[in-house]
Amino acid sequence: MQRNKCKAIARHFNWVHSITNIDAAKVLSAQRSAAQRPLQVLIQVQLSGEPSKQGADPGHIPDLAGQVAVLPNLQLRGLMTMGRMHDDNLSVFMRLHAIQERLQAAGHTLDTLSMGMSADYRQGIAAGATMVRIGTALFGERSAPQAHHHAP
Prior knowledge:
Blueprint: H1 6-12, E1 15-19, H2 22-31, E2 39-44, H3 61-69, E3 74-81, H4 90-105, E4 112-117, H5 121-126, E5 131-133, H6 135-139
Parallel strand pairs: 1-2, 2-3, 3-4, 4-5
């Protein structure tokens, strides 16, 4: 999530699935109007080991959850992860479920696990997902962005 987009995100959206650090969470909280419902947030956890995937380090999640949970104008609802492309991700998703259980045992009220996309949503559900992201299954493959050429 780009920092310059945080104000618009905080103002116009109800959910953010991609909190990866406390700085982004603080900016969202500061930009969210107190007149609005708290912004519902998920911490994105990097479990796939792929450098192209974003997310907080699993070892930092307890501290990050504690910091996010006390911010005004945000409500920490749970965790999100992305599995490896074209792979069996059940073990990745089970790790996220285990992290959620440890956080709940530590006193966090977390009701959301967002894991599984069009190719692996069944594995996400088997591991306890309460939210899946299946845009490709609904809308088809994305077309490659067209390069914009400007006349000299």
